[in-house]
Write a structure and sequence with these properties.
The structure is a homodimer.
Chain A lengths: L2 H9 L4 E2 L25 E4 L4 H14 L3 E4 L15 E5 L6 E5 L4 E5 L4 H10 L2 E2 L11 H6 L7 H4 L6 E7 L5 E5 L11 H5 L8 E8 L1 E2 L3 E9 L2 H13 L6 E6 H11 L10 E9 L2 H17 L2 E7 L2 H12 L1 H5 L3 E4 L2 E2 L5 H14 L6 E4 L4 E7 H5 L3 H14 L15 H6 L3 H14 L13
Parallel strand pairs in A: 2-4, 3-4
Antiparallel strand pairs in A: 1-2, 5-6, 6-10, 7-11, 8-9, 8-10, 12-14, 12-15, 13-14, 13-18, 16-19, 17-19, 18-19
Helix pairs in contact in A: 1-2, 7-9, 7-12, 12-14
Chain lengths: ~450, ~450
């Protein structure tokens, strides 16, 4: 029996796609064109219904040494799920049961293929909160765990890692293992759950997860604070935190960039003065609490050089500000060669912005740069002109070198995927790389899972 | 040159202890007598001054295949650091520099031998907070990371894992590796930091750490809520969380046990009615905030069967309540054979308390049981009479079996150490154990680091 027949016998003929014209959407992700990996020619898309079928597929692949590319929502911006060698795309889309929202334990149990949109709406409907919020709600449960997704709410609530309490994983050799559970503390041996989180599909296939939930804050508010220039803006952030306020999100944007987004959306950026802006989103249990936090933030920023503070009173005003910020990537995307994802110590954010600006001037380009200020997580956007002038890699080299000089790392939240392997390799010590490769070999002796991604 | 001479040449003669009568405190920890492992006969205590000396010691040990037992504050309750075979006790006590409290990045950098007491006081003096608080402030930085320490504040702030942003680690083969840094997001490859956290000294020696800090809350308050019986008490906990309040700590105690502690301390347990009590500790940015939270908790508990609510107004009243709770372990210790550390889903806490009580009745003993209610983390205390009647292991078997039946695990916060290996082995699947052993072999090919502990 050939591979396709065997796959059909596992999942049923309806769930094996072999015609290229029917699988285009499984060969792509959200990676910008200039660095998007090219899918291999001979790919089979398989859609299992449950962990047991995933196990059978992996056993078959392991026996025949066939590469397997696990796929969630396809929202990677670094080519994570793209099948770069002949093999099987393993789409988790049919594992889409939101199994339970457990109100007594404050946990949600969901299969890997549940989208963030479904999960967030279901949790909200119960009056609860799943705190992390990666930008694209098309992302799926398995993917956000495999990539330890971040997003803007990490200031207060941290990244996805902090919320994963249980996992069901199918290992490359076919074993189905349940780890953890509805448990808030767990120190039983080496922590395989935390090793799976952020492993980018190279160690095992996540089929189910248990997440911790939080109460939903009664209210949120948005405060837009303007500074004459970036150093004053960035310096104000730790002062706010030191004053005892932990906003939900602290986003940094500059006027020239955000006004591109505003124009595109037919909106007006409401800040009348200043070139450097911080958008504070605050949550709380009642109006007094939230207004009190906003007032305190405004006071601290005033005392630290703010030139204007704008409190978004209505939901409409709040939404407009956040929309201009959130649509930035989409607005820039058509001319984008690549978006980077460095993390630097939060206090070095302004220095890093300066450095990227110097590089932009040096190479006669424009590099829009914005991000999650309090996390030190910035996204320099390299535009198509650099690609056209064959300067993309030169400029990237320069930016990563500046990031490293400031104590930073290659990727904060998007992961290594396929498009950042060369920089991961350059900035990671040999001992760590050897240990990572050793772990990969231990979990996946025939190297069938997502070859070409992350550390592989 | 023999081993002792080589060690002297690395750290200096003053820092190698070979006389048994001078090393007694290095052969012990806080494990209760009945299950405390016995130290081997031929032990050398070595006290390096820095990571480079740690590296030289590990290279020597690796070459000579000499077991090495890394040691922090010796506050383990599961025999974690006890040298159960001939070899080297590696005390990190001289790596005691608190290197920096970085106010701009809100991070603290400390060597492995810094005690929690030193760290907490230094951070407080800067108006900041290191959120986790393991019970014993004699614990050291390296130890709380290697054991992923928990404690009561985990309800709001989580465990130590959430705060570790950078590590310096010396691997068994001598390489010194720096991981992460003053970075809040980091997805660069398989996460070796999170693999080191909770690894109980079997994968590498932690020599330095970077922790994230938080603003210090302006105020805390203590609320003691009484219920007629445990099921009502435990059922009220998720209602409080669902109402949007996340207390710093939610501790559960029963009258008959807490009154032993009160009598011992010459204090009076202030709750006049009810047998099941929950101690809520709440923090906030001002008086209104904290009182508002307390009032809301009281309302929710009233609506869910509370028979009495006592607000500890003065610092003295607060301290007295927390002291009676915190001293429970010390009060019970003289007659204690072993304290367990299971975690169950939070909603099963009352069922687990019932199960342990049934077992106590069945075997004619008394098993004080209390713990971190919201975390599902309970500490059944097995007393000496069980040991004397040779029932200790029978009763433990029964308790762990009930824990597993309720979806629980063997150890929530204390770790496997030496005293819980048999139960870790019993309740962990073969695939996970094989992977853990494979990781151990990868990191430590000659099995020199802490042999006999955790999964080894």
């Amino acid at each position: 029996m050939d591979l396709v027949d065997e796959l059909r016998s596992i999942v049923g003929a309806d769930f094996v796609v072999t015609r290229r014209d029917q699988m285009q959407q499984y060969l792509l992700d959200e990676t910008p064109q200039a660095v998007k990996p090219v899918a291999a020619d001979n790919v089979i898309v398989v859609k299992p219904a449950n962990a047991s079928q995933v196990s059978d597929i992996l056993k078959l692949a392991n026996r025949t040494k066939t590469p397997v590319f696990p796929r969630g929502g396809g929202t990677s911006t670094v080519g994570g799920p793209i099948p770069t060698s002949d093999g099987i795309v393993l789409s988790l889309e049919r594992l889409d049961r939101l199994i339970e929202i457990d109100m007594e334990n404050l946990m949600v149990v969901a299969e890997a293929g549940v989208t963030m949109e479904t999960l967030l709406r279901a949790v909200e409907a119960k009056g609860l909160l799943f705190p992390p919020h990666p930008g694209d709600e098309g992302a799926q449960v398995g993917g956000i765990i495999a990539c330890n997704a971040g997003g803007s709410r990490a200031v207060k609530y941290g990244i996805v890692r902090n919320y994963v309490k249980g996992l069901e994983v199918v290992f490359p050799t076919g074993e189905i293992v349940t780890m953890g559970g509805k448990l808030l503390k767990n120190n039983t041996g080496l922590d395989l759950i935390h090793l799976m989180i952020g492993s980018e599909g190279i160690l095992g296939v996540i089929t189910k997860a248990v997440f911790r939930l939080y109460p939903r804050p009664a209210m949120t508010a948005v405060l837009l604070v303007s500074f004459a220039e970036r150093h004053a803006a960035v310096a104000a952030v730790p002062k706010v935190l030191q004053a005892g306020i932990i906003p939900l999100a602290i986003e940094y944007v500059e006027r020239d960039i955000i006004e591109i987004s505003a124009r595109h959306l037919g909106l007006t950026w409401p800040a009348k003065t200043g070139d450097a802006h911080i958008i504070f989103t605050v949550d709380g249990s009642n109006e007094d609490d939230v207004y009190g936090q906003c007032q305190r933030i405004a006071e601290v920023c005033d005392a630290n050089g703010a030139v204007d503070t704008l409190f978004a009173e209505t939901k409409q005003e709040q939404d407009a500000i956040l929309k201009m910020r959130n649509e930035l990537y989409g607005v820039l995307m058509p001319d984008l060669a690549e978006s980077l994802d460095l993390d630097v110590p939060p206090a070095r954010v302004a220095d890093f912005l300066d450095a990227v600006e110097r590089i932009a001037v040096q190479y006669g380009s424009r590099i829009p740069n914005y991000g999650h200020a309090a996390d030190g997580n910035l996204h320099p956007h390299l535009m198509m002109d650099l690609q056209q002038r064959e300067l993309l890699w030169t400029v990237k080299d320069a930016i990563y070198e500046e990031g490293a000089r400031l104590g930073g790392i290659v990727t904060a939240e998007h992961g290594v995927g396929r498009s950042r392997r060369v920089y991961f390799d350059r900035y990671t010590d040999e001992t760590s790389k050897q240990l990572m490769r050793g772990i990969k070999q231990l979990f996946d002796p025939n190297n069938i899972l997502n070859p070409g991604a992350a550390i592989t």
